[in-house]
Design a protein that fits this description.
- The chain is of the alpha/beta class and 365 residues long.
- It has two domains: 2-174 and 350-362, Rossmann fold; 182-338, Glycogen Phosphorylase B (Rossmann fold), CATH 3.40.50.
- The chain is 41% helix and 16% strand.
- The protein is built from 13 helices and 13 strands.
- The protein has helices at 10-25, 48-53, 71-91, 104-113, 134-144, 153-163, 188-195, 216-230, 247-260, 273-282, 291-296, 327-338, 354-362, and strands at residues 2-7, 30-36, 59-62, 96-100, 120-123, 147-150, 169-171, 201-205, 235-239, 265-268, 286-288, 304-307, 320-323.
- The strands form two sheets. A seven-stranded parallel beta sheet has the order 3-2-1-4-5-6-7, sandwiched between helices. It has a six-stranded parallel beta sheet with strand order 10-9-8-11-12-13, with helices on both faces.
- Strand 1, helix 1 and strand 2 form a beta-alpha-beta unit.
- Helix 8 runs parallel beside helix 9 and helix 8 packs parallel to helix 12 (327-338).
- The longest helix is centred in the first third of the chain and has 21 residues, at 71-91.
- 48% of the residues are buried.
- This is GDP/UDP-N,N'-diacetylbacillosamine 2-epimerase (Hydrolysing).
- GO terms for molecular function: hydrolase activity, hydrolyzing O-glycosyl compounds.
- It comes from Olivibacter domesticus.
- InterPro entries: UDP-GlcNAc_Epase, UDP_GlcNAc_Epimerase_2_dom, WecB-like.
Length: 365
């Protein structure tokens, strides 16, 4: 069975990885990865190297991302991605193509496949992020897909409502957490030495809000003000924003923060999955507006401060504390987190043997 896998970023590749490793080793499948988006951007760490470093050799590359990230550039990149994938789907044929999440590049690649009757299998459909236009892209991808692997039952119900039936919908849990208990994290002393993190730290990721784009300059200032004060109490390890509308607004502010507090602030372009999970395991808590905090952090016994509306509507475990994009609110919530220990509750996104479940379904279609 010939399987294509659409991967547009460091994030989705890390989520796919447990399944990709099993697909690679199973002779039933012929696996090809289609890398595009920020994988090919030196500005975002050129994470194509991560794919190759994990032993994947059948990799197609499609470059369509622009340097700028204003609204016109994102719209142009969407169109360019669509055009390039129109040629790609004409020349390449698969029994099934895996796609994941809600990125605009992923949506463009999938939409280009509709006239070619490409059979898509979508991961993480049915979720809701009202503060990001990704919400629209996610549902577009779901409508274009014939198989759906969701992270929890409420998301399966939403996919059913979107497509009008329950055919091809499987509730499997979050693929990124598959086998996390047996995962060999980087030993803490080695991790700290590699990234020069000598003391306690907060793991931070902020992305722009892509619905209310006009507010991002205000949000970046509020974030800067909060992080300046939090850095006086604990070190900050910050993973950089992805390629979203107005992402450079946040990047520029974070670079300025590091210049002011070089001993307290570490900026990381790309951790990779093992290092990121190691950072999650060793940090005091998470702060920002990224989906990884909501989906994965509970399994590492960490509390999360979810800021603003980017993840609004996404189902949360009891480890998540929500606050507004306001410096005082962020500082106050951070002070509360500094007084708490580990989170000891459950994670609504976790199910056992997710990759094996997906693999067994793929062999029956």
């Amino acid at each position: 069975m010939k399987i294509g896998v659409l991967s547009s970023s460091r994030a989705d590749f890390g989520i796919y990885l447990p399944l990709l490793n099993q697909l690679k080793e199973d002779p039933f499948f012929e696996l090809e990865i289609i890398a595009f988006g920020t994988h090919l951007s030196k500005f975002h760490g050129y994470t194509l190297d991560n794919i190759l470093a994990n032993g994947f050799r059948n990799v197609h590359t499609i470059s369509s991302l622009l340097t700028n990230d204003d609204e016109a550039s994102i719209a142009t990149a969407y169109g360019l991605t669509n055009l390039k994938f129109a040629d790609f789907w004409r020349a390449n044929h698969y029994d099934l193509v895996l796609c994941l999440g809600d990125r605009f590049e992923m949506s463009a690649a999938v939409q280009a496949g509709i006239p070619y009757n490409i059979k898509f299998a979508h991961f993480h459909g049915g979720e809701t992020t009202l503060g990001a236009v990704d919400n629209i892209y996610r549902h577009q991808i779901s409508l274009a897909s014939s198989l759906h692997f969701t992270a929890a039952q409420p998301f399966s119900e939403r996919v059913k409502a979107i497509k009008g039936d329950d055919v091809g919908i499987y509730t499997v849990g979050s693929l990124s957490l598959d086998g996390y208990q047996e995962m060999e994290l980087v030993p803490e002393d080695e991790f700290r030495a590699t990234f020069n993190i000598p003391s306690d730290f907060v793991l931070i990721t902020f992305h722009p809000e892509t619905v209310s784009t006009g507010m991002n300059k205000v949000y970046a200032v509020q974030m800067f003000s909060a992080l300046r004060n939090i850095a006086k109490k604990i070190d900050l390890v910050i993973t950089m924003p992805n390629a979203d509308t107005m992402g450079t607004v946040f990047r520029d502010v974070l670079v300025q923060l590091q210049l002011e507090y070089p001993e307290k602030v570490k900026l990381i372009e790309n951790f990779g999955k093992i290092n990121y999970f190691s950072a999650m395991s060793y940090c005091r808590f998470l702060l920002g507006n990224t989906s990884s905090g909501i989906i994965e952090a509970a399994s590492f016994n960490k509390y999360v401060i979810n800021v603003g509306d980017r993840q609004k509507g996404r189902a949360q475990s009891e480890n998540t504390f929500n606050c507004s994009f306001n410096s005082v609110a962020m500082e106050d919530t951070a002070n509360l987190m500094l007084s708490k220990g580990d989170y000891t509750g459950s994670n609504i996104y976790y199910k056992e043997n997710t990759a094996e479940t997906v693999l067994s379904v793929l062999k029956t279609i």
